[in-house]
Amino acid sequence: MTTRTNKLAWLEAELADLREQGRYTTIRTLDSPQGPWLIVDGKRALNFCSNNYLGLANHPRLVAAAKAAMDRYGVGPGAVRTIAGTMTLHNELERKLAEFKGAEAAVTFQSGFTANAGAIPALVGDNDLVISDRLNHASIIDGVRLTKAARAIYEHCDPESLREVLEENYGRYQRIFIITDGVFSMDGDIAPLDRIVELAEEFNAITIVDDAHGEGVLGRGGRGIVDHFGLHGRVDVEIGTMSKAFGVVGGVVAGSKVLIEWLKQRGRPFLFSSAMTVPDVAACIAAVELLAESTELVDRLWANARYFQAEMRRLGFDLGRTQTPITPVILGDERLTQQFSRRLYEEGVFATAITFPTVPKGLARIRVMLSAAHSQEDLDQGLEIFGRVGRELGVVG
Ligand SMILES: *Cc1c(COP(=O)(O)O)cnc(C)c1O
Questions:
Q1: With a 6 A CB cut-off, is 139 part of the ligand 1 pocket?
Q2: How do the domains of the chain map onto residue ranges?
Q3: Residue 369 has pLDDT above 90, yes or no
């Protein structure tokens, strides 16, 4: 008998379930570069969604660098670097990233996600303990899942809770690792890395920080969270991405020479997945050079963020505990938030609703991502529309 059954039929039921719960993600289509304005599903809209903090995703200098590199080196890396050899470009980017971050050395990965999935299991052994902030990013969680180590959680950004976990477990494991996001992407708050490092030093624990939303944003000229707190040489492993403020794509781990040498021997996405492509690497080099030359873009990002957030609070919106240009507009109710986002889009503002399970139930929000690329008129127009939709839906008076 050869009746063909649909063996994946259960997925249809699961998808219907997602739709019913308002948890189905509809992906909008862009027909423009990333910039302050986008063509979203055929309609021009103000962009409040991207992590393109500095406007580099479509910066002429990055585009020119990518084109020039392709003329010289082509597009692809050929194979993994340990087999096909490494291009001078990748080495140059790693040197420049290390220098920018004030670290001894750096190694690139294909993305921030694979940097975590590579670095964490390469370092954490079976007899170790990993202590994570309760709200760490999915790529950290998955990186930890790839280890056989014991796991513990401390309360979000709470050094006292971390101390309790350390006291409880000290001496029971071969090594203890503390892992945290630098800036938390859904709330915009900053990990108390100074206190975390002090505790790590007291309890002889190894620190890993994922600074995806801090690079190009925090510290002098966007040098990141380690620079923000003046902790150079005291954070053991710095993980990052080039997909946010740097405007391109790619991951990075920075730290001591011995750490980087080890990751090139044992980081599985380094050993078993091909390197960043030529145009990506060249564009990233241009991004780092641009940031090293001038603080202008970072300064403008912060000026935009301060202005927009002050005006939003004046309108009566709840921005939670943000300390960075990430601007959560907390509305609470899931359906209200979806409706708010839809109304913003109709009025020409692209700002996505973020709901459970990405954030806890009852804390649904619109997340506004500000950029150095926004002009004063862009911000004022966004504020006017937020105020209007907020009054219409009874969120603000
Ligand atoms: C965005 C993000 C990542 C993933 O970075 P990609 O380069 O896009 O893979 C990893 N960690 C944190 C904390 C992030 O916010």
A1: yes
A2: 22-53+295-392, 59-293
A3: yes
Residues labelled as active-site residues: 185, 213, 244
Identical fold between 22-53+295-392 and 59-293: no
Q: What is the pLDDT of residues 171-222, one digit of tens each?
A: 999 999 999 999 999 999 999 999 999 999 999 999 999 999 999 999 999 9
Q: Is 113 in the pocket of ligand 1 (CB under 6 A)?
A: yes
Answer yes or no: CATH 3.40.640.10 is held by domain 59-293: yes
Query: Rounded mean pLDDT of the chain?
Result: 96
The three-state (H, E, C) secondary structure of the chain, written as one string: CCCCCCCCHHHHHHHHHHHHCCCCCCCCCECCCCCCEEEECCEEEEECCCCCCCCHHHCHHHHHHHHHHHHHHCCCCCCCHHHHCCCHHHHHHHHHHHHHHCCCEEEEECCHHHHHHHHHHHHCCCCCEEEEECCCCHHHHHHHHCCCCEEEEECCCCHHHHHHHHHHHCCCCCCEEEEEECECCCCCCECCHHHHHHHHHHCCCEEEEECCCCCCCCCHHHCCHHHHHCCCCCCCEEEEECCCCCCCCCEEEEECHHHHHHHHHHCHHHHHCCCCCHHHHHHHHHHHHHHHHCCHHHHHHHHHHHHHHHHHHHHCCCCCCCCCCEEEEEEECHHHHHHHHHHHHHCCEECCEECCCCCCCCCEEEEEECCCCCCHHHHHHHHHHHHHHHHHCCCCC
Mean pLDDT of 369-395: 98
Is 111 close to ligand 1, i.e. is its CB under 6 Å away? yes
What per-residue confidence (pLDDT) applies to 21?
80
Q: Which CATH class is domain 22-53+295-392?
A: alpha beta
